[in-house]
Amino acid sequence: MRLQEENTDLKVKVEDMVPLQTEFKRLKDELEEHRLRAQDYEKLDSQINSYKAKLKEFSAQKITMKVLEEKVTTYMQSVVALEDEQRKNGVLKTQIESLRLENTELNMKLNDAIRQAEK
């Protein structure tokens, strides 16, 4: 009889545990779902940090690009000014050469006139 009572008690305990087992399984599944979500969150957080770093790098490159564009503009202005100066120098060089030839001719005429006057 005692065994039968123990058996009955154990059956009651087992029956009482069935809802607990169901609850345990549900909580275990929920925990697994949260763990997977946490992993997804970590991946997304890592991607966000990566994108933030890329944005900072992009901003720095944008600033560098602006500085380089300004330098290019300055260099182009210098090139235009130098080309203009070179053009002016070419004209002056031609004028100087023309005056030099004229000076040489006048010196030759002067020398001829001096020789004729000395004779």
TrEMBL record:
An annotated Gene Ontology molecular function: microtubule binding
Superkingdom of this protein's organism: Eukaryota
InterPro entries assigned to the protein according to its UniProt record, in alphabetical order: Hook_C
Residues of the Hook C-terminal domain: 3-119
One family name in Pfam for this protein: HOOK
Segments crossing the lipid bilayer: none
A Gene Ontology BP annotation from the UniProt entry: cytoplasmic microtubule organization
Record's keyword terms, sorted: Coiled coil
Coiled-coil intervals: 24-116
Name the UniProt record assigns to this protein: HOOK domain-containing protein
Organism: Gongylonema pulchrum
